[in-house]
Amino acid sequence: MDIGSTIRAIRKRKNITIAQICELTGLSQGFMSQVETNKTSPSISTLENIAQALKVPLAYLLLKKEERMHIVRKDERTITTSGPANLKVEHLSSTQNVRMSIVEIPPGTMTGEAPHAHEGQEVHVVIKGRIYAEQGEDGAEFAEGDSFSWNACTPHLVKNIGEDTAIVLISIYTENENGQDLF
């Protein structure tokens, strides 16, 4: 863990000097310097005092870099194609177990030639267009603003039943880190 660098970055961003943080926490400047250079590991109680002085949650100081906010700008998104119809998949963002994508489905096109199943749970929001979704024996039509969810281990498919390209926002949760490609 690189807690010291995190503390130093927050302190500098908030224009707080080491002397000021020491005054607020009762810690010595030498000790704070060692904390910020990762030469010593402070106790949880000490970290809590530092977090309070910095006005940040203690949990934030304990996060690993990969657990912090991950930003993907619109022009930085990864775009892939999926399935026999080469559906456009725009990958928005992800965490260890959750991925969000926007899928464009041209008129008359389905997510596959037949229903398919895979690990995970999915939540869908129709952003634009009209689609038909089927899971097992259940099926329904959805329009802009409608949403649905399912356990993806049951065979399912989605078909664009409208005259224009349908756009669907999909969030997928899997137990596996970074899950398999599910489209």
A few lines on this structure:
The protein has 183 residues and is α+β, with helices and mostly antiparallel strands. It is built from five helices and nine strands.
What does this structure look like?
The protein contains 5 helices and 9 strands. It is α+β, with helices and mostly antiparallel strands. The chain has 2 domains: 3-67, lambda repressor-like DNA-binding domains (434 Repressor (Amino-terminal Domain), Orthogonal Bundle); 74-173, Jelly Rolls, CATH 2.60.120.10. A 6-stranded antiparallel sheet has the order 1-2-3-9-4-7, with no helix packed on it. A hairpin with a 3-residue loop joins strand 2 (87-94) and strand 3 (98-105). The longest helix has 11 residues, at 3-13. It is elongated and about 70 Å long. The two termini are 35 Å apart.
Can you give keywords for this protein?
183 residues; alpha+beta; 434 Repressor (Amino-terminal Domain); Jelly Rolls; 3-stranded antiparallel beta sheet; 9 strands
